[in-house]
Specification:
Order of helices and strands of chain C: EEEHEEEHHHEHEHEEHHEEEEEEEEEE
CATH superfamily of the largest domain in chain A: MetI-like
Chains: A mainly alpha (about 290), B mainly alpha (about 300), C alpha+beta (about 375)
CATH topology of the largest domain in chain A: MetI-like fold
Structural class of chain C: alpha+beta
CATH topology of the largest domain in chain C: Rossmann fold
CATH architecture of the largest domain in chain C: 3-Layer(aba) Sandwich
Shape of chain A: globular
Radius of gyration of chain C: 25 Å
Structural class of chain A: mainly alpha
Helix content of chain A: over 70%
Number of helices of chain A: 13
CATH architecture of the largest domain in chain A: Orthogonal Bundle
CATH superfamily of the largest domain in chain C: P-loop containing nucleotide triphosphate hydrolases
Distance between the termini of chain C: 42 Å
Order of helices and strands of chain A: HHEEHHHHHHHHHHH
Number of domains of chain C: 2
CATH class of the largest domain in chain A: Mainly Alpha
Largest interface: A-B, 90 and 87 residues
Number of strands of chain A: 2
Strand order of the largest sheet of chain A: 1-2
CATH class of the largest domain in chain C: Alpha Beta
Number of strands of chain C: 20
Strand content of chain A: under 5%
Distance between the termini of chain A: 36 Å
Shape of chain C: elongated
Radius of gyration of chain A: 24 Å
Strand content of chain C: 35-45%
Oligomer: heterotrimer
Number of domains of chain A: 2
Chain lengths: ~290, ~300, ~375
């Protein structure tokens, strides 16, 4: 055995990888290909599939009904990412400028909601936002500030709020990681060279934190685009995203080929976003995990 | 003459510097305020959620007194208890399997150069990047047409009979392998390789070196990976929901269907219970980190 | 023990892909010797050590330890132990567990392990530190644990890879003496890798000077210093003057012309070169006497005398460093020990005579 390993060093690597490779090729890569194949098939009359090649499913994704949902999902994910950046950057900056001991406490405090079940965090907002029985509307009405409930629930606002809440730590952590590495003497050097604080930010802090910003944006955008739980709970059955349309094809409409095609288009959009990320950044600009 | 000009300059200088100081402390103050506001935003919904789990009415918006009733109802709801056991069982089994497989994969990826490594890297990263919903329907179709997986694994734990579909465990392992591999690999990357050479130099053969040096050194990474896998498995809703077939609930799946039926403080109670689980896991990971006295690794999940 | 050698390397070559790290190195190391591999970083000295330890396998050539061919034997089957540059102490074990590791692997009995670990720790003056963790020790103490961990196995040969490199200067000096004393006490062959020429000169019985994968010279410290056989060795070890010129006359006592009218006799450092070929005369600064024009050189022996002009004077405390111009474009450094207070010192611009013994001048190939 030892001699075999000495002669073929890759043998040892593949033996170590064998379980992972087997598992992932059978239970991940194979399903991925099956979905791809399914997306080119036709739907059977009573659910199921007919083995007939067809591009109909992909054509249908461009039907106004589905295409508009795609666009809306894209819009919601983009707005979510933007708001996360707007809220997350100062928060990351705040954490990074605290003394080291405080910093690790604050990061831990950021991780706790993050490690809490996503479903529960979404449910928490449900109890706050619901139109007639949500805490916010009930409180505001009983205080006499408003006499009609505010439209906080079952719309894009609720979904975006839920997504921002859910993914904000994903934006803050990578930005914090770059800001923390930032050499404070750079800032001192900049102000020593007569830069005002806004200029220090624009010319030094922002460019240097860009890798974190880009990484954070990816980490927020991709799961927001593929969101399923948030619109299912906070969308109130009215405001839907692409993830819900996909799930409907499997749970209600029994149109598996079309659901496959939709999820493929969704993954293609994400792949595109990832590629743009890798193209627009050099390896130094990218976050090192 | 010269001393006069100095005394004249001093007040204007100090006025300017005082203004700069005021500006600076105002900036500092608003930043602090913002920071507190950010954490307030993150914690408030969770705190309210917990508070209303003790509410003495069906409302989750109007406080009507303190009670433990909802916790009582929760404990006596056999469906919830069963789904809790299901959750724990799936999490434990899938963590054990994925930790072994993921650790082996991490060793291969970190320690070896071979053809196909780039492909394997991509295969390991994909389950992390792909959204839950896409992975869920992929696996659903796969289990449906292959016909494997949906039959249950029947076990009896502390007198409770569980019937856990293999498909759920298989799916959880499929997404957990990657997370374990990444965490363990990061640990391996920072490990000093001369330690293994030192062991070999001191007459330890390949196996002895692995058991006596490599494995103990990897342990913090393995434990970290295990905790992450356990948490992800315990928290997963989407993939379990789609791959379990009818009639099988983990706690998150149960909570989702309860939410769909209507909001009651009982859901708040279940949520609070899950929160306690999460906090306990974070506590354990902190203890481990202290034992491993190293840089805290920030786990960023998608 | 047919040849009585501790370690022998026969034309060992090591390539990493396209890069050749060690190029046909042959060495013979005696039992009980303190043998140093000296060279700048990247010269192949560490690779040579790793080849002996078995961490790397030679591309070609043989390694013989204690009369036995090592072939492709893994490190754990070789009768050598290593002290690593950064010690490589197992952080998850106590000091005593670290030291006991090798004995446990060799399945030595429990009682004997306890006894020998105790002895080894006493040997390096760490008798009371056995239950500590490596991280709780200072750099110097960690160094000693690494030594004890290797020596406790009673290896035939101990390999040391820049073991003092991570210590501060003062501690390094102290450890040098300690290491040397320890080696004499235990009588084990030491192969010591270092880039510090002073360290090598003070501690070694013999030194091999390496560069770019080749061994340039093997010899006793004073040999290496006094009789460098190549320009590289002369330059790498100590300070030296290089006077470029052409071979004027061959023979056991050759002459080299460094300028039109300046012809200097010197000895060959290596093979003789034909007349007319370019060569370099190497002369150590401290071998040169600086005197005023009317002073005669000492009468015991044959001296080379050259006139010059002082271009620079630097007072260095223990000695004074003069830069003397011999002819335009040819300068030489002279070091004069400051034996007395107010020693007669020359000023910039003074005309002086330089004298040195003929045998101190060495002609090297270009």
């Amino acid at each position: 055995m030892q001699r075999l390993f000495a002669r073929y060093p890759a043998l040892r690597a593949w033996l170590l990888l064998l379980p992972a490779a087997t598992w992932l090729f059978i239970f991940f890569i194979a399903p991925l290909f099956i979905v791809l194949v399914y997306s080119f098939l036709e739907r059977g009359t009573y659910g199921g599939v007919v083995w007939q090649f067809s591009l109909e499913n992909f054509r249908r994704t461009f039907d106004s009904l589905y295409f508009s949902t795609f666009l809306r999902s894209f819009y919601i994910a983009a707005v979510t990412t933007f708001i996360c950046l707007l809220l997350g950057f100062p928060l990351a900056y705040y954490i990074s400028t605290r003394p080291p001991q405080r910093r690790s406490t604050l990061i831990l405090a950021l991780m706790i909601p993050f490690w809490t079940n996503f479903l529960i965090r979404t449910y928490a907002w449900l109890t706050l936002l619901r139109t007639n029985t949500g805490l916010i509307n009930v409180s505001l009405m009983s205080l006499g500030i408003i006499d009609k409930p505010l439209p906080l629930f079952g719309n894009d606002f609720a979904i975006i709020l839920g997504l921002v809440y859910g993914w904000l730590p994903d934006m803050v952590l990578p930005i914090y990681a770059t800001l923390e590495r930032l050499d404070t003497s750079l800032l001192e050097a900049a102000s020593d060279l007569y830069a005002s604080s806004s200029k220090v930010f624009r010319r030094v802090i922002w460019p240097l934190s860009l890798p974190g910003v880009v990484a954070g944006s990816m980490l927020v955008f991709i799961p927001s685009l593929g969101a399923f739980v948030t619109p299912a709970i906070l969308g109130g059955g009215k405001s839907l995203m692409i993830g819900n349309i996909i799930s409907n094809q499997f749970l209600a409409a029994h149109d598996w080929p079309f659901g496959s095609a939709l999820s493929f288009v969704m993954m293609a959009v994400m792949l595109l976003a990832t590629l743009i990320y890798f193209r627009s950044t050099t390896s130094e600009e990218r976050m090192q995990p | 003459m010269s001393s006069e000009s100095i005394t004249q300059q001093v007040p204007s200088m100090s006025r300017r510097s005082r203004w700069a100081r005021v500006k600076k402390s105002m900036g500092e103050f608003s930043l602090s305020l913002y920071g507190w506001g950010g954490y307030f935003f993150l914690y408030l919904p969770i705190v309210i959620l917990v508070i209303f789990s003790f509410n003495d009415s069906r409302s989750t918006a109007q406080w009507s007194g303190f009670t433990f009733d909802w916790y009582g109802e929760m404990i006596h709801d056999s469906q919830i208890i069963l789904s809790l056991w299901n959750s724990l069982f799936v999490a434990v089994i899938s963590t054990i399997i994925s930790v072994v497989i993921g650790t082996l994969a991490a060793m291969a990826m970190e320690r070896h150069v071979f053809r196909g490594k780039l492909l394997m890297d991509a295969v390991l990263y994909l389950p992390i990047i792909i959204p839950d919903i896409a992975m869920a329907i992929m696996l659903l179709i796969f289990f449906d047409i292959s016909g494997i997986g949906f039959e249950p694994w029947k076990v009896s734990l502390f007198g409770i009979r569980l019937a856990v579909p293999y498909s759920v465990i298989i799916s959880h392992v499929a997404f957990n392998i990657s997370f374990v591999a990444i965490v363990v690999r990061a640990r391996l990357a920072q490990m000093d390789r001369t330690l293994e050479e030192a062991a070999q130099d001191l007459y330890a053969d390949t196996w002895q070196t692995f058991w006596k040096v490599t494995l103990p050194m990897m342990m913090p990474g393995i434990m970290g990976g295990a905790l992450l896998a356990f948490t992800l498995s315990l928290d997963d809703f989407v993939i379990t929901f789609f791959t379990s077939g009818a009639g099988f609930n983990t706690l998150p799946v149960r909570v989702f269907s309860m939410i769909k039926k209507g909001v009651t403080p009982k859901i708040n109670a279940v949520s609070s219970l899950m929160l306690v689980f999460s906090l306990a896991l974070i506590g354990i990971s902190l203890l481990l980190r202290k034992g491993g006295d190293e840089e805290p690794t920030i786990g960023i999940g998608l | 023990m047919s040849d009585g050698l501790a370690v022998e390397l026969r034309q060992v070559v090591k390539r990493f892909g396209e890069v050749t790290a060690v190029e046909s190195v042959s060495l013979q190391i005696q039992h009980g010797e303190f043998f140093s591999l000296l060279g700048p970083s990247g010269c192949g000295k560490t690779t040579t050590l790793r080849l002996i330890a078995g961490f790397e396998m030679p591309t070609s050539g043989d390694i013989i330890i204690n009369g036995e061919m090592q072939g492709h034997l893994p490190p754990y089957q070789r009768p050598v132990n290593t002290v690593f540059q950064h010690y490589a102490l197992f952080p998850h074990m106590t000091v005593a567990q670290n030291v006991a590791f090798g004995l446990e692997m060799k399945k030595v009995s429990k009682d004997e392990i306890t006894r020998r670990v105790g002895e080894a720790l006493e040997l390096v003056h760490l008798g009371k530190m056995g239950s500590r963790r490596p991280k709780q020790l200072s750099g110097g103490q960690q160094q000693r644990v690494a030594l004890a961990r290797a020596l406790v196995n009673r290896p035939k040969v101990l390999l040391l890879d820049e073991p003092l490199g991570a210590l501060d200067l003062k501690l390094r000096k102290a450890m040098q003496g300690e290491l040397k004393a320890l080696q004499e006490q235990v009588g084990i062959t030491f192969i010591y890798v270092t880039h510090d020429q002073e360290e090598a000169l003070t501690m070694s019985d013999r030194i091999a000077v390496m560069s770019a994968g080749h061994v340039f010279q093997v010899g006793f410290p004073e040999d290496i210093y006094e009789n460098p056989n190549t320009r590289f060795v002369a330059d790498f070890i100590g300070e030296t003057n290089f006077l470029h010129g052409t071979v004027h006359r061959r023979g056991p006592l050759a002459e080299i012309a460094i300028a039109e009218n300046v012809i200097l006799p010197a000895r060959w450092a290596s093979d003789e070169l034909p007349a007319g070929s370019s060569a370099t005369l190497s002369i150590r600064p401290e071998k040169i006497l600086i005197a005023s024009g009317d002073e005669k050189p000492p009468s015991d022996g044959e001296f080379v005398s050259v006139p010059g002009q002082v271009a620079e004077v630097v007072y260095l405390g223990t000695d004074t460093r003069y830069v003397v111009r011999i002819v335009d474009g040819v300068q030489t450094v002279v070091r004069v020990q400051n034996l007395e207070m107010g020693n007669k010192r020359f000023k910039v611009g003074d005309a002086v005579m330089l004298h040195w013994r003929v045998e101190h001048g060495r002609i090297l190939k270009e």
